[in-house]
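Limitations
The structure tokens in this dataset are predictions for the assembled complex, not deposited experimental models. Users should treat interface geometry with appropriate caution, especially where small molecules or nucleic acid strands are included. An illustrative entry is reproduced here so readers can see what is and is not provided.
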Amino acid sequence: MLGGPGLESVVDQFISVITNDGRNIVGVLKGFDQATNIILDESHERVYSTKEGVQQLVLGLYIIRGDNIGVIGELDEELDASLNLSELRAHPLKPVIH
Amino acid sequence: MLFFSYFKDLVGREVTVELKNDLAIQGTLHSVDQYLNIKLENTRVVDQEKYPHMLSVRNCFIRGSVVRYVQLPPDGVDVDLLHDATRREARGG
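Predicted assembly:
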């Protein structure tokens, strides 16, 4: 029985995090612990809107508390590079309601 | 522990995980842990037009605390087995 999340396989890779307040943060996973607290390097937030394309806000080195994490997605860098973020229109994600 | 064991037996099956923020992610169950955190492979978001936020994600880790439902294939459930296991847990717990 493993103690924590099996995130070893994605360390040093670009990941996409969906937080409980509906934010999408992309960065390189540097570390994690049993509570799914994570260290994200070179991170930026992708802000989605229905009026304009995706805005990327540079954040830098972040620690995100596990409490606030919903999904950690392994980013396929090729697929991600092929995305035209400036053309993407979408409603921001909803916050998590327990 | 019951559901942890139950999900371990479902590894390899196609499931749809609906989250508490209404996002629904379909994929192959890769693994589960004691917190019922779920790892899915070959993921696709159910309503991709509405939720393009995970277009370039193919494998993901979903924190157990954020799961609302796990939708299973109908033949993935042995109701009698679950029933027995539940009775046993209730007796022991």
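Some entries come with short summary sentences. For this one: The mean pLDDT of chain A is 92.
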